[in-house]
Design a protein that fits this description.
alpha+beta; Endonuclease I-creI; 2 domains; four-stranded antiparallel sheet; 4 strands; rod-shaped
Length: 260
Amino acid sequence: MTTADRDLVAALRSELAAIDPARACDLVAELAGLGSTQRTTDSVRDPVLARLAVRLARRGSAASAGSFDWEGSADHCRMAYLRGLFLARGSLSVAGARTHLEFVVEVDQAPVLTAWLFGAGMPGSWRVRRGRGVVTWKSGETVGYFLRRIGAGAALLELEARQVSRTLRGELNRILNAESSNLQRSVAAAGRQLAAIDQLEGDGRLSQQPYAVRVVAEARRETPEATLAELAERLGYHRSGVQRALERVERLALHGEAKS
């Protein structure tokens, strides 16, 4: 990720960590999501996580950390639990045009968490990596929905704005590349047509062609940069008629004869 992307992810984590649960049940649920990571070296290295764990522990019961009754809990408690779990066990990547979020949990917890998330309308996949369970989302829409539900606000808006901007840039580049390719083909075709016209005029065969072919050939020579549609509009012909006339000129120059 770029420095800007890392700063955005850091801002999002700080925003989520600053949420102060209003309900006692949500506080206990978020502590459960933080779980045993409150005592790992990771939490010591992450000041945001360390401060959050201390603040919640002062208000709640540290003894409840790590255990959570998903089925018996209200939706707001589930989201508080997932917020704690994301802060403790989650990572977010927004590099390039891809958004990737994953939770690293115990192997036996991975399928359980995946089932919980599926039931909450956020389907993902899981696998084992280096002896740990990894639950993954690669859908930017799902990631955005999840972050919104656990309380992300300003940072999420910035993330979504960047995703839209990247999508628009990608679409613009695609259009520009397509236009560039079309232009290159048009320039190449016009070059072939001009060479064929010069050849036929030089050996006298152009004057032997039907009137429409001679008119189109002259218009092409006068406006080599014009598209077929522009030539047709100028001459009052159909585009297909202009195209057939120029194709006839090229065939005659290449093969010595033109088919009707």
